[in-house]
Amino acid sequence: MRRWYLSVLVIGVLTMGSVGAAFAHHGWRWTTGGNIELTGMITAARLGNPHGVLTVDAEGQVWRVEVGQPWRNERAGLKPGDLKKGVEIRIVGEPSADIKDKRVKAERLYIGPKEYKLYPERD
Amino acid sequence: MTEIWSALQASDLAVWINYSRWAYAAVATVHVLAIGALIGSILTLDLRLMGVGRWLDPHQLARFVVPVAGTAFCFAIVSGVVLFIGRAGEYAAFGTFRIKIALIVVAVAMIAAAHVRYGMRLERASDRQRFHLGLASILLWLGVAVSGRMIAFVHG
Questions:
Q1: N or C: lower Cβ tally within 10 Å for chain B?
Q2: What is the pTM of this model?
């Protein structure tokens, strides 16, 4: 009997361990905590749930820019079609703590002179 | 295949799930709850197959647990299909997603094969064979849950 409780416990702990180790996606846990600024051209945009992703060419460096879910982008004032291929964009946001990973989570976007605050509560 | 995924992603259902706020949240929540109910219920039957709780009548347990697990499975499949349709092409290309689907297929095929071979109540299976079926089932369903959860973290 005791053996079974133990094996179930082990399976559970391993499962949670592997999930914990990979926690690097939603939220801000995977970012550095400081902001960077990035300017470039959108080469691909995939919007929609669970959140949008832009591919941005910033002077030859390809970045993956995570933007908001549809409601967040809309709240920021973005219209459908604002984020699309060929658009020049400036991004302020937190980069991935892993510097090899060219990924940034946008807090604010700038298209031309216009500012779009995805996370108004964040600096 | 690629054309099928593109067609799915262009469907009204895909657009709805991709751009709604609460429908997406609701479907994702149903998916999680259904998986919880499925694994929670099937785990009890698997443990009994493995020989835990011998004081419990296995047939009565199965009569109670299998419909719960079956219903949960249906909810998980329907909500899962809706979530999949929104990003069909992407998900279909993800290794973690493919592993998850493969594990579901193996798990369901194993249930079918076990009943064909050992009878509807597994009455022709030895204790040892029941033990292995229970263990395989636990590992497969946990594998489904883990590989499913990893989709968001490996490919996010």
A1: N
A2: 0.81
